[in-house]
Amino acid sequence: MQSTHLLIEEPVRMASILEPSKPSFFPAMTKIVGTLGPKSRSVEIISRCLEAGMSVARFDFSWGETEFHQETLNNMKVAIKSTKKLCAVMLDTVGPELQVVNKTEHPISLKADSLVVLTPDQNKEATSNLLPINFGGLSKAVKTGDAIFIGQYLFTGSETTSVWLEVTEVSGDDVVCLIKNSATLSGQLYTLHVSQIRIDLPTLTDKDKEARNYLSKLGDLNQTQIFAKIENVEGLTHFDEILQEADGIILSRGNLGIDLPPEKVFLFQKAAVYKCNMVGKPAVVTRVVDSMTDNLRPTRAEATDVANAVLDGCDAILLGAETLRGLYPVETISIVGKICAEAEKVSNHDLHFKKTVKYVGEPMTHLESIASSAVRAAIKVKASVIICFTSSGRAARLIAKYRPTMPVISVVVPRLKTNQLRWTFTGAFEARQSLIVRSLFPTLADPRHPAESTGGTNESILKVALDHGKATGLIKPHDRIVVCQKVGDASVVKIIELED
């Protein structure tokens, strides 16, 4: 029997699927973090990555010398100047990482159903039967039957560059394992992960502590935000406490996928992203388009995975091997941005807004009330953008928390401050730190224009913001704009309708 109407409401017009994606200055409101490395460290490639939509550059300190990363950073500064695109820097510290040490750097072939010994004696040479590791306490932490995974980019189920081991015997300090799949390990260092076992290593290594002490001595750098990377069951069980202390959360799904059964990973992603959304802290999702490390197009499953991360509410997508050593870093950033933009078009912003308002409850703080009102007004009048004047960035982040359907131009107005030796302007830090927050697009205002106005409006600085919006194609004639700014001691939300 033929039905004359659809039994379910059609959320997306089928015809719209065949319409080509529209290019824009901001390809997506979801941010893209690209890891810079051997294939993505030249001025030319970094410039192209910035043009393609990368807003945060990640430096992975688990490999490479400091000098190597410094050179890359210098190249990045040149690329930022030439492209005139703001970019933040994410420094990924080593943390408590177990590693296999292969001093010869010759590839090591491991055959399924044979045995391999893990030994803490790093003077021994790595072979197909013996792997030296950087930790003496492994034999005390594991027991027969435990699962261990080793590889440069950890086991996903089909890789031949990672290996799955099962502990068969503990002999003194050595651990004897049965190899479950054939694989070839190449390079100098491979990560070792023991499934669901707590390894008693300090969270901060000496190298990490040096970095933190160094930051705290460098004046402005003590404002550096700290994101917590959740990559095992321990991080999951203490998630609420970690979220309270961290400035943002990175869901390291590669490692989590080993500690959790495959059918449980998506549940953790949804729960963790929701909690981050409700408290207004950025949630970053990793391991999305692994196949693009070697291929020009993602798989259908990967493309769907990126879209679902956006629909779940993540702020940013983090690309690792895809840009670090991948063959197509620029194309990967571009296609991930396009998928994010399409997912944003069908995101249920209204439901998200209601959930956030309900979670925050009443009475709201003054700032929270202003931020939610700005978003509500922008949605009601179908504004093309929200313009928010801020000096700390907090007001803009609160607006973004309510997930507006339109971009938020965050005009960061510098403040003059002194340490009694010299006068400096704040602002650059605050602007860059919002580059990982979904829908926030910061721009630095001229320090001569105050963020707070004693009159009814602050025309000169507003004109600069509007001109920026027009130049980027976000604002067109007859558009409505919602502006959020301080006037004297009060915060004001107003709606502007542009003429020709």
The gist of it:
Helix content is 34%, strand content 23%. It has 500 residues and is of the alpha/beta class.
Described by the principal axes of the CA atoms, the overall outline is: elongated
Strand order of the largest sheet: 3-2-1-16-15-14-13
Query: Unreliable stretches, pLDDT < 50, 5 or more residues?
Result: 451-457
The count of domains is 3
Query: Looking at CATH, which topology of the largest domain would you report?
Result: TIM Barrel
What is the subunit organization of this protein?
Answer: single chain
The number of helices is: 17
CATH superfamily of the largest domain: Phosphoenolpyruvate-binding domains
In helices, the fraction of residues equals: 25-40%
- The CATH class name of the largest domain reads Alpha Beta
User: Care to count the β-strands?
Assistant: 24
Distance between the ends: 55 Å
Report the average pLDDT across residues: 85
Class from secondary-structure proportions: alpha/beta
Measured by DSSP, the beta-strand proportion falls in 15-25%
Summarize the main sheet.
7 strands, parallel
CATH-scheme architecture of the largest domain: Alpha-Beta Barrel
Radius of gyration: 25 Å
Pathway: Carbohydrate degradation; glycolysis; pyruvate from D-glyceraldehyde 3-phosphate: step 5/5
Protein name: Pyruvate kinase
Keywords: ATP-binding, Glycolysis, Kinase, Magnesium, Metal-binding, Nucleotide-binding, Pyruvate, Transferase
EC number: 2.7.1.40
